[in-house]
Write a structure and sequence with these properties.
The chain has 142 residues and is mainly alpha-helical. It is 46% helix and 7% strand. The protein has 6 helices and 3 strands, in the order βββαααααα.
């Protein structure tokens, strides 16, 4: 991640080169913006958001050791970095986000890739069914 890819005033990260060869724009939440602003203050002289003076590329390439330190400090065993991505998708589903929104936020190209999150919570489905039932029966909300 390069600083030039971030637009903190618009709260977005534009990734120019992705796995599927197409650029993607990622919306950033306030918590991430705050962390990035702190990193910019600490790394103001580097073009990289996560610089590494010991790396031939000048930036962090493999976060394995840092990830292991994070797990050890938190007392978590057997978690992978990709689990963070799955957790975001899961919580979006649980809190009622649409499959289209979840897919877009995770960068999925197909609904099939996003469908796994649909099974996590029946609450949004139940709420939609209840709303439709109330409308059919002429019951006012509340």
């Amino acid at each position: 991640m390069r600083w030039e890819e971030l637009d903190l005033s618009r709260n977005v990260w534009r990734i120019p080169d992705t796995k599927n060869g197409k650029p993607v724009t990622v919306p950033l939440v306030p918590f991430a913006i705050s962390l990035l602003e702190d990193l910019r203050k600490a790394n103001s002289s580097s073009e990289w958001v996560f610089p590494s003076p010991t790396s031939a590329t000048g930036h962090l390439v493999e976060p394995r050791k840092a990830w292991e330190r994070i797990l050890a400090r938190s007392g978590i065993d057997n978690a992978r970095i990709h689990d963070l991505r799955r957790t975001m998708g899961s919580w979006q589903a649980i809190t009622g986000a649409s499959m289209q929104v979840i897919g877009k936020s995770l960068g999925h190209k197909s609904q099939q890739a996003t469908a796994i999150y649909a099974r996590l919570s029946l609450d949004p489905v139940r709420a939609a069914m209840e709303k439709a039932t109330n409308a059919m029966l002429g019951v006012k909300d509340g």
